[in-house]
Amino acid sequence: MLRVSDYPEDDELVVCTVKHVKNYGAFVNLDEYDDKEGFIHVRDVATGWVKYIRDYVREGQKIVCKVLSIDPSKGHIDLSLKQVNDHQKREKIQQWKNEKKAEKLLEIIAAKMKKKPEALLEDGLHSVIEKYGGLYPVFELAALDMKTFKKEAGKKKWVEAIIGTAKENIQPPEVEITATMELLCPDPLGVIHIRNALLENSASERAEISIKYVGAPKYRIEISAMDYKIAEDELKKIFNGISDSLEQHEGKARLIRE
User: Fold this and answer.
1) CA distance 30 to 7
2) Contact 4, 129 (CB under 8 A)
3) Which of 20, 93, 171, 197 is the most exposed place for a label (fewest CB within 10 A)?
4) Domain locations in the chain?
5) What is the CATH architecture of 13-84?
6) Gap between the Cα atoms of 78 and 69, Å rounded
Protein backbone atom coordinates (compact mmCIF):
# COMPACT_ATOMS: atom_id res chain seq x y z
CA MET A 1 0.00 0.00 0.00
CA LEU A 2 1.09 3.57 -0.67
CA ARG A 3 1.41 5.40 2.63
CA VAL A 4 2.18 8.89 3.80
CA SER A 5 3.89 7.60 6.98
CA ASP A 6 5.59 4.43 8.25
CA TYR A 7 3.26 4.01 11.23
CA PRO A 8 -0.46 4.62 11.74
CA GLU A 9 -1.70 7.30 14.11
CA ASP A 10 -3.51 6.86 17.41
CA ASP A 11 -7.25 6.21 16.86
CA GLU A 12 -6.70 5.42 13.18
CA LEU A 13 -8.66 2.52 11.70
CA VAL A 14 -6.44 -0.09 10.04
CA VAL A 15 -7.03 -3.22 7.97
CA CYS A 16 -5.35 -6.27 9.50
CA THR A 17 -4.79 -9.95 8.77
CA VAL A 18 -4.92 -12.23 11.80
CA LYS A 19 -1.71 -14.30 12.01
CA HIS A 20 -1.72 -15.99 15.42
CA VAL A 21 -4.48 -16.39 18.00
CA LYS A 22 -3.67 -17.08 21.64
CA ASN A 23 -5.90 -17.27 24.70
CA TYR A 24 -4.63 -13.88 25.85
CA GLY A 25 -4.96 -12.08 22.52
CA ALA A 26 -4.31 -12.05 18.79
CA PHE A 27 -1.29 -11.05 16.73
CA VAL A 28 -2.08 -9.40 13.42
CA ASN A 29 -0.28 -7.86 10.44
CA LEU A 30 -1.23 -4.34 9.39
CA ASP A 31 -1.89 -4.68 5.66
CA GLU A 32 -1.42 -0.98 4.92
CA TYR A 33 1.86 -0.62 6.78
CA ASP A 34 4.25 -3.21 5.32
CA ASP A 35 2.64 -5.94 7.43
CA LYS A 36 3.91 -4.42 10.67
CA GLU A 37 2.77 -6.52 13.61
CA GLY A 38 0.05 -5.40 15.98
CA PHE A 39 -1.51 -6.98 19.05
CA ILE A 40 -5.12 -7.17 20.24
CA HIS A 41 -5.41 -8.02 23.92
CA VAL A 42 -8.31 -10.33 24.73
CA ARG A 43 -10.00 -7.50 26.65
CA ASP A 44 -10.07 -5.47 23.42
CA VAL A 45 -11.50 -8.22 21.24
CA ALA A 46 -15.15 -7.84 22.24
CA THR A 47 -17.39 -6.17 24.78
CA GLY A 48 -17.90 -8.28 27.88
CA TRP A 49 -16.19 -11.51 28.87
CA VAL A 50 -14.59 -13.44 26.02
CA LYS A 51 -14.72 -17.16 26.82
CA TYR A 52 -13.38 -18.44 23.50
CA ILE A 53 -11.35 -15.87 21.61
CA ARG A 54 -11.66 -17.86 18.38
CA ASP A 55 -15.38 -17.11 18.40
CA TYR A 56 -14.32 -13.59 17.40
CA VAL A 57 -11.01 -13.89 15.52
CA ARG A 58 -9.29 -16.66 13.60
CA GLU A 59 -6.08 -17.08 11.63
CA GLY A 60 -6.20 -15.62 8.12
CA GLN A 61 -9.22 -13.41 8.83
CA LYS A 62 -9.35 -9.81 7.56
CA ILE A 63 -10.45 -7.44 10.31
CA VAL A 64 -10.56 -3.71 10.97
CA CYS A 65 -9.05 -2.44 14.21
CA LYS A 66 -8.62 0.86 15.98
CA VAL A 67 -5.10 1.90 16.98
CA LEU A 68 -4.84 2.37 20.74
CA SER A 69 -1.15 3.16 21.14
CA ILE A 70 2.13 2.97 19.24
CA ASP A 71 5.72 2.58 20.37
CA PRO A 72 7.88 2.79 17.21
CA SER A 73 11.09 2.32 19.21
CA LYS A 74 9.91 -1.15 20.28
CA GLY A 75 7.73 -1.82 17.24
CA HIS A 76 4.66 -2.24 19.44
CA ILE A 77 1.19 -1.39 18.09
CA ASP A 78 -1.75 -2.04 20.42
CA LEU A 79 -5.12 -2.43 18.74
CA SER A 80 -8.80 -2.76 19.57
CA LEU A 81 -11.36 -4.78 17.65
CA LYS A 82 -14.33 -4.04 19.89
CA GLN A 83 -14.13 -0.27 19.32
CA VAL A 84 -14.91 -0.60 15.60
CA ASN A 85 -18.60 -0.74 14.65
CA ASP A 86 -20.05 -2.40 11.55
CA HIS A 87 -20.40 0.88 9.63
CA GLN A 88 -16.77 1.83 10.29
CA LYS A 89 -15.65 -1.63 9.24
CA ARG A 90 -17.53 -1.52 5.92
CA GLU A 91 -16.30 2.00 5.19
CA LYS A 92 -12.67 1.16 5.98
CA ILE A 93 -12.69 -2.07 3.95
CA GLN A 94 -14.10 -0.18 0.97
CA GLN A 95 -11.43 2.49 1.35
CA TRP A 96 -8.75 -0.20 1.46
CA LYS A 97 -10.15 -1.88 -1.68
CA ASN A 98 -10.23 1.50 -3.43
CA GLU A 99 -6.57 2.08 -2.62
CA LYS A 100 -5.64 -1.35 -3.95
CA LYS A 101 -7.51 -0.57 -7.18
CA ALA A 102 -5.74 2.79 -7.47
CA GLU A 103 -2.35 1.13 -7.01
CA LYS A 104 -3.12 -1.28 -9.86
CA LEU A 105 -4.08 1.66 -12.08
CA LEU A 106 -0.84 3.43 -11.17
CA GLU A 107 1.13 0.32 -12.11
CA ILE A 108 -0.59 0.30 -15.51
CA ILE A 109 0.17 3.99 -16.05
CA ALA A 110 3.80 3.54 -15.04
CA ALA A 111 4.20 0.54 -17.36
CA LYS A 112 2.82 2.52 -20.31
CA MET A 113 5.31 5.28 -19.54
CA LYS A 114 8.08 2.64 -19.20
CA LYS A 115 8.71 3.67 -15.62
CA LYS A 116 8.24 2.20 -12.17
CA PRO A 117 5.46 3.52 -9.89
CA GLU A 118 8.16 4.72 -7.48
CA ALA A 119 9.52 7.04 -10.18
CA LEU A 120 6.14 8.76 -10.51
CA LEU A 121 5.89 9.11 -6.75
CA GLU A 122 9.31 10.73 -6.59
CA ASP A 123 8.33 13.03 -9.47
CA GLY A 124 5.78 14.89 -7.36
CA LEU A 125 2.87 12.45 -7.14
CA HIS A 126 3.64 11.58 -3.53
CA SER A 127 3.08 15.17 -2.38
CA VAL A 128 -0.39 15.17 -3.99
CA ILE A 129 -1.19 11.83 -2.32
CA GLU A 130 -0.07 13.23 1.02
CA LYS A 131 -2.32 16.27 0.65
CA TYR A 132 -5.43 14.26 -0.25
CA GLY A 133 -4.82 11.35 2.11
CA GLY A 134 -4.45 8.55 -0.41
CA LEU A 135 -3.96 7.56 -4.02
CA TYR A 136 -7.62 6.80 -4.72
CA PRO A 137 -8.76 10.32 -3.71
CA VAL A 138 -6.17 11.64 -6.18
CA PHE A 139 -7.75 9.58 -8.97
CA GLU A 140 -11.18 10.82 -7.88
CA LEU A 141 -9.97 14.40 -8.07
CA ALA A 142 -8.53 13.80 -11.54
CA ALA A 143 -11.81 12.30 -12.73
CA LEU A 144 -14.12 14.96 -11.33
CA ASP A 145 -12.12 18.17 -11.08
CA MET A 146 -9.45 18.11 -13.76
CA LYS A 147 -8.65 21.81 -13.37
CA THR A 148 -7.89 21.53 -9.67
CA PHE A 149 -5.93 18.33 -10.21
CA LYS A 150 -3.70 19.98 -12.81
CA LYS A 151 -3.14 22.91 -10.46
CA GLU A 152 -2.15 20.58 -7.61
CA ALA A 153 0.02 18.30 -9.73
CA GLY A 154 1.82 20.92 -11.81
CA LYS A 155 3.32 20.32 -15.23
CA LYS A 156 4.31 16.68 -14.91
CA LYS A 157 4.36 14.08 -17.66
CA TRP A 158 2.11 11.73 -15.68
CA VAL A 159 -0.73 14.25 -15.24
CA GLU A 160 -2.58 13.55 -18.50
CA ALA A 161 -2.07 9.80 -18.08
CA ILE A 162 -3.70 9.86 -14.65
CA ILE A 163 -6.58 12.02 -15.89
CA GLY A 164 -7.28 9.68 -18.80
CA THR A 165 -7.09 6.55 -16.66
CA ALA A 166 -9.21 8.12 -13.92
CA LYS A 167 -11.99 9.11 -16.31
CA GLU A 168 -12.09 5.56 -17.70
CA ASN A 169 -11.93 3.66 -14.41
CA ILE A 170 -13.06 5.80 -11.49
CA GLN A 171 -16.66 6.61 -10.74
CA PRO A 172 -16.38 9.50 -8.27
CA PRO A 173 -18.86 9.44 -5.41
CA GLU A 174 -21.42 12.19 -5.58
CA VAL A 175 -23.57 13.96 -3.05
CA GLU A 176 -26.64 15.95 -3.95
CA ILE A 177 -28.19 18.94 -2.25
CA THR A 178 -31.44 20.64 -3.21
CA ALA A 179 -33.04 23.96 -2.40
CA THR A 180 -35.82 26.23 -3.61
CA MET A 181 -35.24 29.79 -4.80
CA GLU A 182 -37.98 32.40 -4.78
CA LEU A 183 -37.14 34.94 -7.48
CA LEU A 184 -39.09 38.20 -7.83
CA CYS A 185 -38.56 41.18 -10.10
CA PRO A 186 -41.23 43.98 -10.39
CA ASP A 187 -39.61 45.47 -13.48
CA PRO A 188 -41.80 45.26 -16.65
CA LEU A 189 -39.09 43.03 -18.08
CA GLY A 190 -38.86 41.03 -14.85
CA VAL A 191 -39.29 37.63 -16.52
CA ILE A 192 -36.39 38.36 -18.85
CA HIS A 193 -34.20 39.62 -16.01
CA ILE A 194 -34.88 36.43 -14.04
CA ARG A 195 -34.11 34.27 -17.05
CA ASN A 196 -30.86 36.11 -17.68
CA ALA A 197 -29.87 35.87 -14.02
CA LEU A 198 -30.36 32.11 -14.15
CA LEU A 199 -28.46 31.67 -17.41
CA GLU A 200 -25.54 33.84 -16.29
CA ASN A 201 -25.08 32.12 -12.94
CA SER A 202 -25.88 28.44 -13.44
CA ALA A 203 -22.54 27.20 -14.83
CA SER A 204 -19.96 25.35 -12.74
CA GLU A 205 -16.75 23.43 -13.40
CA ARG A 206 -16.91 21.69 -10.03
CA ALA A 207 -20.47 20.40 -9.92
CA GLU A 208 -23.51 19.48 -11.99
CA ILE A 209 -26.25 22.10 -11.74
CA SER A 210 -29.93 21.69 -12.53
CA ILE A 211 -32.46 24.52 -12.10
CA LYS A 212 -36.13 23.79 -12.82
CA TYR A 213 -39.15 26.05 -12.80
CA VAL A 214 -41.63 24.92 -10.14
CA GLY A 215 -44.24 27.66 -10.37
CA ALA A 216 -44.04 31.41 -9.89
CA PRO A 217 -41.98 32.56 -8.11
CA LYS A 218 -40.24 29.28 -7.23
CA TYR A 219 -37.31 27.51 -8.89
CA ARG A 220 -35.80 24.24 -7.69
CA ILE A 221 -32.01 23.95 -7.77
CA GLU A 222 -30.20 20.61 -7.56
CA ILE A 223 -26.43 20.39 -7.18
CA SER A 224 -24.36 17.20 -7.49
CA ALA A 225 -20.71 17.33 -6.45
CA MET A 226 -17.84 15.25 -5.10
CA ASP A 227 -18.54 16.29 -1.51
CA TYR A 228 -20.86 18.47 0.55
CA LYS A 229 -18.41 21.33 0.90
CA ILE A 230 -18.11 21.74 -2.86
CA ALA A 231 -21.88 21.45 -3.28
CA GLU A 232 -22.56 24.03 -0.57
CA ASP A 233 -19.94 26.41 -1.97
CA GLU A 234 -21.45 26.18 -5.45
CA LEU A 235 -24.97 26.73 -4.11
CA LYS A 236 -23.84 29.85 -2.26
CA LYS A 237 -21.97 31.18 -5.30
CA ILE A 238 -24.88 30.57 -7.68
CA PHE A 239 -27.53 32.02 -5.38
CA ASN A 240 -25.45 35.10 -4.59
CA GLY A 241 -24.85 35.67 -8.30
CA ILE A 242 -28.56 35.41 -9.09
CA SER A 243 -29.45 37.66 -6.17
CA ASP A 244 -26.91 40.32 -7.23
CA SER A 245 -28.20 40.23 -10.81
CA LEU A 246 -31.81 40.75 -9.74
CA GLU A 247 -30.96 43.54 -7.32
CA GLN A 248 -29.73 45.57 -10.29
CA HIS A 249 -33.36 45.63 -11.46
CA GLU A 250 -34.92 46.07 -8.00
CA GLY A 251 -35.62 42.38 -7.80
CA LYS A 252 -34.90 40.04 -4.91
CA ALA A 253 -34.14 36.41 -4.26
CA ARG A 254 -34.78 34.14 -1.29
CA LEU A 255 -33.25 30.73 -0.69
CA ILE A 256 -35.31 28.02 1.03
CA ARG A 257 -33.34 24.97 2.18
CA GLU A 258 -34.98 21.56 2.11
Assistant:
1) 10
2) yes
3) 171
4) 13-84, 87-169, 175-257
5) Beta Barrel (2.40)
6) 5
